[in-house]
């Protein structure tokens, strides 16, 4: 359908470069942009780099009743980063995100400014991946004959949670417009696992794993 659409609307058709370069034209939605540098996949081919700032989206669900709450310390640490341009709530409308990089944080994330800066520098080397701190693993449990999920610390992992991670803003558009509505409805219904869904989305598009960076303090 996308190919037919490009043939009918020639003025809006995507160039051959989109179709012949991973992840392909089906993953480069023209509704998002027709400019190559707006996508996380083409920086290397274009000889460009992501913007040198990021937008922090902090998902907070608890009321602020004390100045010692973790979210206030987290906000202060993030805002001191030399790369941070804006701190806001998670899931703001797309126009509010003016940077390529999104730093997604849960309110109980515990990061220092140096850890935020380090993760962002790593992300700029790998802008098509999720780069962050808390990792998880999913595996096939033969005893239960089903997929399982674990937070045990091992030498292997398959996911980096968006509770403290950088990713490209384009994935907000893919998450909202590309994923089947049933998947989004499911995570809305259980009010959980949206980070798992985002990981599988990015991995499906890029065919690449996330990147975990280390930290001095663990995410609580």
TrEMBL record:
GO terms for molecular function: glycosyltransferase activity. It comes from Micrurus corallinus (Brazilian coral snake). One of its GO terms (biological process) is carbohydrate derivative metabolic process. It is a single-pass type II membrane protein. Pathway: Protein modification; protein glycosylation. Pfam families: Glyco_transf_64. Keywords: Disulfide bond, Glycoprotein, Glycosyltransferase, Membrane, Signal-anchor, Transferase, Transmembrane. SUPFAM superfamilies: Nucleotide-diphospho-sugar transferases (SSF53448). Its main location: endoplasmic reticulum. Belongs to the glycosyltransferase 47 family. This is Glycosyl transferase 64 domain-containing protein. Gene3D superfamilies: Spore Coat Polysaccharide Biosynthesis Protein SpsA, Chain A.
